[in-house]
Design a protein that fits this description.
The chain is mainly β. It has a single domain, classed as Umud Fragment, subunit A, CATH 2.10.109.10. It has one helix at about 25-30; strands at about 1-5, 10, 40-45, 55-60, 70-75, 80-90, 95, 105-110, 115-125. A hairpin with a 3-residue loop joins strand 6 (about 80-90) and strand 7 (about 95).
């Protein structure tokens, strides 16, 4: 699966296309997550530059009951799937941020019905983050 750092990737289905091999003891020690709940996806687009470039792999944790917290997330808005920085503000407002200053932030009020917004998983690792 690819996630957009731009105008959004339309995800019609999520089909594994291969495996990303990590040293399991290192992964469990350094990342501390259940490897079965993690997926590696590729970034597509430039809206998260310089943090991620198009083609970069990112490790996404799909754990249940994740608490909203500031960080980089894979989200779904409408039919688009994105990798974005989320900033949770007072109340029920979230700022959706692209690291590339050429893109404007979006602010969503989660108290309003937001059927098109879904937090899929938190980005936990990428070669550029560590």
């Amino acid at each position: 699966m690819r996630v957009s750092a731009g105008d959004g990737e339309w995800v019609l289905e999520e089909v594994p296309v291969g495996q990303f091999v990590l040293d399991l003891p290192y992964f469990q020690r350094e990342i501390g997550l259940d490897a079965n709940r993690c997926r590696v996806v590729k970034v597509s687009g430039d809206s998260m530059e310089p943090t991620f470039r198009s083609g970069d792999p990112v490790l996404v944790y799909l754990g249940e009951n994740q608490q909203p917290a500031d960080g980089i997330w894979v989200i779904r808005i409408g039919h688009g799937t994105f990798v974005k920085r989320l900033q949770f503000m007072l109340g029920s407002t979230v700022r959706v941020v692209s690291d590339n200053p050429a893109y404007q932030d979006q602010v969503l009020d989660l108290t309003e019905e937001q059927p098109d917004f879904q937090m899929i998983g938190r980005v936990m690792w990428s070669p550029r983050l560590h």
